[in-house]
Amino acid sequence: MRLSMLKLLMIASLLSSSLIASKTIDDKILKYEKNRIGSILKRQGINLEKVTILLKQDLKQDGWHGYVFNLHFKIKGIERTERDSLFTNGSMITPDLISFKTKRSFKDVLYPKLSDKYFSKEHLIAGNPNAKHSLVIFSDPLCPICVDEVPFIIKKVLDNPKNIALYYYHLPLDMHPTAKTLSKASIIARKLGIKNVDYRIYNENFPDKYKFDAYKEKNHQKVLNFFNKEFGTNITMKQIADIELENKIKYDIKMSEDALVKGTPTIFFDGIVDIRRDKYEKYLK
User: Fold this and answer.
1) How would you label 100-123 residue by residue, b for 16+ Cβ within 10 Å and e otherwise?
2) Distance CA 271, CA 250 (A)
3) Of 61, 103, 167, 254, whose Cβ has the fewest other Cβ atoms within 10 Å?
4) Which tens digit of pLDDT belongs to each residue from 22-54?
5) Which residues pair with 85 in a beta bridge?
6) How far is Cα of residue 93 from the mean position of the Cα atoms in its chain?
7) DSSP letters spanning 187-234
8) CA–CA dist 90, 17 (Å, integer)
9) Quick one: which of 112, 111, 58 has its CA closest to 89?
């Protein structure tokens, strides 16, 4: 599922060329982005304060590179940072680049390689921490695609724990109002010693089992009751509201932002994004 983006940046633009007078390709693309986004924001009465290059990636496609930018501006005095991307081969610039072979946008592969900080013991949920290979999952417990795929992946690693370490990051999306409550409850349950909480919460498919709409349900107590029934716990809303839990979720969300995660589920194999979410399978045995 896609995360929401600032509407004013969702303006389609055609393939364009640029011969901007500057010293390097990075300078050219940065100046072009400043002018492009600056003019869009100006029409909205917003001043673009700064643009920085967050990621530059060689696409290994005839000299094409992908860039991800941080856009810094203020709306009604509130500082905002949004992201945007462009592609260039040194003489042409385009907001999107589609592969003839895969029919997919190269935006799908604009991710950094994960640093060692993502492989923390606290986030290990299955497998061998000393394994040669790693999986990192960013997921929402009420995301339908996550419910379909994440329990399958976790179970595979649980059944074949030798060669892969599996790390899990909570990414409850705003479009699922009670997802954060379930994420917090799962953290508490894990601390209580309940095993395989993350696998079970996905495998049980709470919206189907307990007949509620993940996009509309806003009764947190009701959904927490479902969790308590499923796991035999007595977690209260007071516990859910604990500031330490809130900070844990914020930390995971920040880690997803640093990894340029655009939606759920997003999976990295050995630190590299895995769009097809299947590279780990040949290392299970």
Assistant:
1) eeeeeebbeebbbebeeebeeeeb
2) 21
3) 103
4) 358 999 999 999 999 999 999 999 999 999 999
5) 68
6) 26
7) HHHHHTT-TTHHHHHHHTTHHHHTT--TTT---HHHHHHHHHHHHT--
8) 9
9) 58
